[in-house]
Amino acid sequence: MQKILDLSKKSVIKIKKKDRSSSGSLCNIHLPDNKSLPVLIANNHMLNENDITIGEKIDFSLDNDKVCYQILIDNNRKVYTSRQYDVTFIEIKESDGLDISSFLETDPNIFSYDESRLNNNQGILLSYPQGEELQFSNGIIKKLTEDGYHIIHFCNTTCGSAGGPIIDSKNNHIIAVHQGTNIYKNYNIGIFLKKP
Q: In the prediction, which pLDDT does 44 show?
C-alpha cells in the first residue's frame, strides 16, 4: 500500500480545464508486442476530441498542486479518445520532463486478464475529489458489467474523482479508470482497460 501511495504523488494527476478539474493518471500501458507506452489517461467527458487537436495544451498538476505541467498536442504525439468507452489516452514524451520510471503500471497481462479475478476483489481508487487533495479509498470491485467494458465498484467517490485510476490491490496495477456513479442503483462505474 505504501508503495502505491508514494507512486501516486508522481502519477495521479489533477487535470485543470477552465473552471473545473478532474482526476487522471500517468501510467505505462503494456502492449501485446511486449512494449510499453507511457500515457496520460483521463475520461473523454473531461478531455475529448476538441481538447486533443493539434496545437491544444493540456494543463495538469501532481502532488497536491506542488508540481504543474503543460503538454502540447502535436503531430508527434499519439492520442486516442472514445466517447463509447469514455476514455482518453495521450502519449507522454521524454521531452515533457516527467519521470516515466515513477508512473503507475497497467497489468502486464491486461489484454488477456482473467476477468473472473475482478469478482469481489479489493480495489483502490486514487483521485482528487472536488479538485482538492489527493485521496485514496478502498472498496470491492464487484464484477464486470454485461457490456464487457465496465466494472461495478464500491470505492468511495465524489465529484472530481472521475478519471482516477482503480488499482487491483493484489498486484498494484491499474485495471480500470473511474467513470462515475449510478445514483439510482448506488454503485460506481469504472472503465475496464482491457477493452479500449
A: 96
